[in-house]
Amino acid sequence: MVSIGKEKLSFYEQNGFVRFEQALSQDLLARLRDLSVRLEDSAKADLANGALRNQYFLSTESEEPKLFRYNDLLFDDPELVLALLASPTMMAICEQMVGLGCVPMQLDLVYKYPHPHPHIAWHHGAPHPRNYPYLNVGVYLDDADLDDGCLRYVPDTQHEVLDIYELSSQYGWDIPGVVQQPAKAGDILVQDMMILHSSEPKRSEGPRRTIYIELRPVEGIAESAMQTAQWAELRKQWMAHVIKAADPQDVPVGWLEYYGEPEHDLPTLVTMIEEKRESPIPAVWSHRNVEHPDYPTPADLR
């Protein structure tokens, strides 16, 4: 079992985010990158054939369409998704940062291409009562460098929803205390779901692909009451499959007993999850369009 360590846990508690360097094996990273290429190719083929699906979103800001987001990777490659969730660092995050009852809620892939393709404005993710952990875990398939659209955080802003319009109107990308958080391919960046964060336009060529995984204990899902008990139970079954796929030495004590044997085989469970769709807790963005000389598009990119 990987130990996260007191230093990283303390940094996360104080700041609302933490980075795990080189957290994926090279083989797993290569498989995930291959999947990202296949998914983008399939979306572009759908566009060419006039058969777009609502599982993904294409950006058309430039002459060549680019994939912006592809949701629910579980539906496309369940075995690879299990391999990712069952990897040693992910299992350690589940145990040591969420605890018993942890389940994956969502697993999506975000593609970031150079401007004029989308930036990510300041926002808080999924407001919730905060009595249980709620993590957004970014798995980096490409490098995210300083001053090239990497994540921006305002540390220790995860406790309440701030006035995003006022802050971004006054400061643009440079809200007081902001830090840029670079990452390398194979890193995992864990953030509190509610921390105030953003991402400037990307300037370098090529895509930056990041898999985002929402993790939360079933008790927290019940507390927010935004999804049904049946929806949560299907994700508990998903986690049972993850535990079955993990190396036994990475499975926390007592988790086999808590999650039990999967009640359905993986293809059946995936179909059930696909059929039982429920809306997530929406993020909080600025309630009005912000007018600022360098935000959201920096002056030199206008």
From TrEMBL:
SUPFAM superfamilies: Clavaminate synthase-like (SSF51197)
Keywords: Dioxygenase, Oxidoreductase
Pfam families for the chain: PhyH (PF05721)
UniProt keyword annotation of Calcium present: no
InterPro entries tied to this protein: Phytyl_CoA_dOase-like
Gene Ontology molecular functions: 2-oxoglutarate-dependent dioxygenase activity; iron ion binding
Protein name: Phytanoyl-CoA dioxygenase
Organism the protein comes from: Pseudoalteromonas rubra
